[in-house]
Amino acid sequence: MASIEMRNIVKKYGDGFPAVNDVSMDIADGEFMILVGPSGCGKSTLLRMIVGLEDITSGDMVIGGDRVNDKAPRERNLSMVFQNYALYPHLSVFENIAFPLRLAKAPEDEVKRKVTEASNVLELGEHLDRRPANLSGGQRQRVAMGRAIVRDADAFLFDEPLSNLDAKLRGQMRTEISRLQRRLGITTVYVTHDQTEAMTLGDRVCVLRKGVIQQVASPRELYEQPVNLFVAGFIGSPPMNFLPATVSGTTLATPFGPIELDASRADKVTGKDLVLVGVRPEYFEDASLVDETKKHVGTTFTAQVDVTEWLGDSQFAYIPYEAPAAVDAQLKELSRELDSDQLRTQAIVSIDSTSRIREGREAEFWLDARKIHVFDPESGDNLTRDAEAGAELTRMAAEDRTDQVAQARGEAS
Ligand SMILES: Nc1ncnc2c1ncn2[C@@H]1O[C@H](COP(=O)(O)OP(=O)(O)OP(=O)(O)O)[C@@H](O)[C@H]1O
Ligand SMILES: [Mg+2]
C-alpha cells in the first residue's frame, strides 16, 4: 500500500494542447480519491499517467516515496480496473482471479491461498468454477477486482468502472466498491463523471476543469463551501441555482426580491455591482410551511410556478425568472461547460412533499438567506466562501477515514 504524490504534472499531447495542466495533489496511503469533471477534462489522462500508460510531459509522479516517471507500468505495482473488465471467457472465475499469479509462475499452494482469500472477501466463493459469461455484471466486476487483489497491488485505479451498468446495478456496485475499499484499506483513485458516485464513494474528490484542478476536498466541503461557480454547479443534483443580483449595501436585489446579507458576507461583496447568488434547491421551501419564528432569517417571495414534480419524499417546483443579457450568456456558457441540460434561467426548488403549491399558479416561497453563496460572475470566484469552515469539514472526513482504515486493517490482521 502506498501514498501517491503528484507535483506539477503536465501532459501535452502531440498538438501541444495541455490535457492536464500543472496538477499537484497528495493522496494518502489508504485514501479513496475521486477524479471528477466533465468529458475531456483530463481524468483518464491523469489516471493513465499514474499507472504508466501515458508519458508525463513534466512534473513528478511519486508513489510510495519513489519517483516513478520513468518506470514501466509493470514496475509500478498498481492495479487498474477498466470500464470493460477484460475477463477471459474461456477461463473459470478461479483462473481469472489467479491470472496474474500464473503469469508470475507462483507456486500452486500460494495461488490457491490467495485466490481463496480474495474470493472470500469478494463473496465469490461459490462461483469459482463458473465462467464469466454466466455471472451478473456485479459479479464480473468483483472478479476483476479479485484479480487486482491477488496481485497485492499498492493501489487500485478505476476508470469509470460502472458506466456501462444499469442504474440499479450501478447503485449496488457503488456500495460494494465502497465497502471493499474500506475493508482492504488500499489506496484508490477512481475516475467518474457522475457526481453521485463522486459524492458517495470518495474520502476526497478532485474536481477538474480543462486539465486544471479546481478544488480537492471532502464531498461535504465541495457541497457546502465550493471555491467557484464551476464546482458549485457541478456538485449537487439538481444543481445549485444561480440568480443574478445587484448589490446595494447589505442587500442583494434578485429576481425573487431582496436578500439581506449578514455583516461578514456583506463585507465580502462590497464594491461589487452585479453578482450571482447561489441557492441550492433545498434552501427553498413553501412559505406556508415555514415556522413564523424562522421566517426572518430568509426571504419570502411570490412567483409563478411553471412545473411541479412530486417525488413522494419531496417535490420540485420550476420557477422561471428574467436575467440580464450579460448574465444570461454567462449562465448558458456555464451550462454548456458542465454538460448540463438545465435551463439556467429557471430555478429548481425542492419543497416539502405535503406542499399544495401547484403548477401554473402563483405561490409564496421562502429561501434561507443564511446558506447562500455569492459569486463573482466574471472570475466565477465564490466571494462568500468560508475557507476555515470548509477545511474543518475535510479535516473531520480525514479523521473518520483514518479510524476506518485502522479498524479495517486491525480486523484483517
Ligand atoms: N491520444 C490523444 N491524443 C491527443 N489528445 C488526446 C489524446 N487523448 C486525450 N486527448 C485530449 O486530452 C483531453 C483529456 O482527455 P481525457 O481522455 O483525459 O478526458 P476525460 O476527462 O477522461 O474525458 P471522458 O469523461 O470523456 O472520458 C481531451 O481534450 C482529449 O481530446
Ligand atoms: Mg475518460
UniProtKB/TrEMBL annotation:
UniProt KW keywords: ATP-binding, Cell membrane, Membrane, Nucleotide-binding, Sugar transport, Translocase, Transport
InterPro entries reported for this sequence: AAA+_ATPase, ABC_transporter-like_ATP-bd, ABC_transporter-like_CS, ABC_transpr_MalK-like, ABC_transpr_MalK/UgpC-like, Mo/tungstate-bd_C_term_dom, OB_MalK-like, P-loop_NTPase
Domain ABC transporter residues, every copy: 4-235
Record-linked SMART domains: AAA (SM00382)
Pfam families: ABC_tran, OB_MalK
Example of a GO MF term: ATP binding
Presence of the UniProt keyword Nucleotide-binding in the record: yes
Name the UniProt record assigns to this protein: Multiple sugar transport system ATP-binding protein
